[in-house]
Design goal:
This protein has 313 residues and is of the alpha/beta class. It is built from ten helices and 15 strands. Helix 1 links the parallel strand 1 and strand 2.
Length: 313
Amino acid sequence: MKIVITGASGYLGGRLTHYFAQNNSHEVIAASRKSLTFTQPIKSSQIDWHNSDSILALCDGADIIIHLASKSEPESEADYKSALLDNGLSSLKLMEAAENTDVNRFIYMSSIKVFGAHQSGHLDENTLVHPQSSYGITHKLVEDYLLAKHLKGTIEGIVCRLSNAVGAPKTQNDNLWCLIGNDFCRQAATMGKITLNTSGKAWRNFVAIKDIEKAFDTLLNVPANSLQNGLFNLGAAHSMRSIDLAKLIAKRAEILWTKKIAVSYPKGDSNTEAPTLDWKIDRLCNLGWQPQKIHLIEEIDNTLKFCKQYFRS
């Protein structure tokens, strides 16, 4: 199977590229607008999103496209026009190229942010979305195009709405440290404490990258008639408050380094409990995938070790 992964220089792209390269039956093409260097069996491809021939060549002969390339949330909010072009139009060009080269399956990584800035309550694939940011709006735009093509039968389109990833990167990448779980790990490793900017009572869903890898493996191999409308929520089985994640990371750091890690937050913050989040992943689980709590522990430990190795305390 020839798998093309866009955004291969990014956080999730780097992990997924190396994960699929472990399977000797796969030919993995790591695509990025940057010039990348990988060791065999991974092949690299530099893509020019403004050049149709470059996009077409990337898709030629591919069985699967895993499309992760996107501006980060801060980048998208800083320049909405660029976000519309890079997140939206470039993705549409890639879909059309995939159709024209007879790619079998196109998997797109979307985001929980299509539900708005503050997610709460019961959220499944049938819940109405209300994106409120350039990041969320452009991801919903790509979702709509791909799912429409899937329903027309021109390509097997899959949309994964990811909650919040936690896990160690393959290489250093500035964007990954704005993610809350990774930020907490970095604080614990470099400062010996974790400081929250809020009370941490907001509920979020945190999923281990190891579970994300296995989810994509599942979606690569399930038969087409199992895909339904092509839309899947991707996340952990249970959500938690940010303060609970901070305490879990502090506990893991204490076990690793036998050193007390304090967790603090603004004392004047509201005592009001935030509404809970029920992020439903049943549709994906019904395909045979199941997230494991132990994987989140493993990813936290590995991220703590990575921070200890690469950042000075």
